[in-house]
Request: fold
Amino acid sequence: MSTCTEAIDQLAAVNRPVQLAVMERIVEHLAAGPAVTHMLVRGSIARGTSDRLSDVDLVVGVAPTAFEEFVTVHDALASTTLGAIMPGWPDTIVPRMGGLGYVHLIEHDGRLYQLDLYLAPTDKIAAITKLTRGHLVYRNDKAGDPAPDPAVAPFVEARLAAPLTCEQLIVEALVLTWMIHKRILRGQRFMAYAEHHMLATTARTLIRTALSPRNAFYGWYHLDTDISVTPIGRSCLRDLEAMITAPSLPTSGSLAASLERILTLAHRAAPQAVDALRLSIEAYRHHLELTDLP
Amino acid sequence: MTTSLLRQVACAGAVDHALLEHVRHEALTVPSGWMAEYGEYQSGGWETLSLLNRTGRATDVTITDCEPTETDLLAAMPATRQLLADLGLHFMWARIARLDAAAYLWEHRDYGELKDVERHRLHIPIVTSSSAYLVLSGSAVHLAAGHIWRLTPTYAHGACNRFGPARVHLILDCYASPELAVLTRDQYLPAGSVRPLPPLTDALLRHHAAQALRLAQLGYAKAAEEHLLRLFFDHTLPEGRAYDLIADMYDAIGHDDAADGWREKKAVLLGIN
Reply:
């Protein structure tokens, strides 16, 4: 009997999801900083419903007095120690829980994984744990119980209110495409629909930000009059129209086409932003493996 | 700029496409037990095995002057053996080398420890991507697959594979010979292989130095060091400047020993007496 249990344990170890190794590495790196007070796993890994495509959802509690500093350097930290292949996307999907969310695409052992980091001041961790049913994986016992810092809330609000730059919008498109691809592979049709709609909105916002930044608040309105006055604008709108008239439930093929359209219009409207991300985009293409490219 | 760069790195010829495909297949399926090399000149993720060396054991990877013999690994890679034989060079050592994603060989000079004999290094890229490149004289040079590249590693240089996939090269150290002279007679830099790196402006320098300082103060000293070391791969910097920036960072936070350590490291890596 014990032999059977041992054998199954060995099999379980061999089949251990890679995301746990990714998480271990991240927790180990982040725990090196004394300002990190807690780390919680949330999402499918915490619920026990994860699969091989699941992202790693981590809430990172940071001492309130160090919160702003930590947010400011976390991209550099993700790039140098976590294997991020591009800057993190400021996550607009995650609920507001008093902190800031970022989605990173990180390379691990030849494959790309999605890392959702939610950075929160320590005083918000108890509420976040309750809300997300997060699973505590790290606690810095030396950190004590730091008091809230009144500077954190306005900093968070300012970050949430800041419009995304062209470079951040390109990263948003790449992250959304990554997420939609997972939905397609899993057959999650409703989420694929929702995120595909977001992708078209990202393309629109990118065009607005690059070509008509002062009228960004108009959203979908007045695009014709604001944008189509130049050849570049007209070409971008043609790409956008092709995206919004594509089937609302994407396939791998239509997703690949949408990605190409966004990158084409980004190159046309915001070439410097594309150039800054050129190596990241090429690495991303390698990992995305949309097999039925048109 | 191009003439100076040509002295340091250049394309010396092409590899037969069909043969390269076989070599690539072997390179991705045969080698195992890669020898990870650790050292102050690199970030980790640099692994090699020998194809021709002094002992015939693939796991002996510390290069030295010798008349090499075939290793057990090369014996199991017939297409690669043919490729090396067809070159007909006077080899000193031949390795297969893997540079993983996010791996860096920091700015350094090679051959400092070897005896003063004329020798040359050739790279034959087997698997590569645009995020794998060398940095020499303020330019990023991507060594495209399908070509034989000559590198003169006594110049300060660095190598990186920023985002993957893993880069696999054959690295051939050879002595001067008539065959090598023929191979390297007409050297050139293919269009698109060189990307001049932008200068590091004062504003950017202050930004990155501040980022590194914050990382170090938050307890991420290694990340701070790497953040500054990677500037060499993004910008034109005076020789050794990245090392100076790290020493300055440690000075700023009162870590005198670490600052002195990086100044010594700079001298060793760049062969400064």
Summary: The radius of gyration of chain A is 21 Å.
